User: Fold this.
Amino acid sequence: QVQLVESGGGLVQAGGSLRLSCAASGRTVRSYTVAWFRQAPGKEREAVAGISWTGVNLYYADSVKSRFTISRDNAKNTVYLQMNSLKPEDTAVYYCAADANYRFQLSPNEFDYWGQGTQVTVSS
Assistant:
């Protein structure tokens, strides 16, 4: 079993930055695809960014391209999401998720493990 714990969320003004961390325990996630999802009130959960187990394949939603960067530190068993130039529409609960099946598919249904989420609120 893998446990994922997100941290780094909070309240920030528009234009500001936050770095989210997703720390894994129980098993190494170096061979897992890991992704960040977000869910705003009344909206579906959407993939924001993803990184394959090799680190070669990356995905960013169009809405966050050039502003968000996903990275992983396998030695620390942690995946990060650097979020810059934040906008009020980025406000959501952010979740990290891990897929153990050697694929790079960013549908929520494909992910085996989920964290509890961290709130990001961007004020205008």
User: Anything to note?
Assistant: The radius of gyration is 13 Å. The longest strand covers residues 18-25.
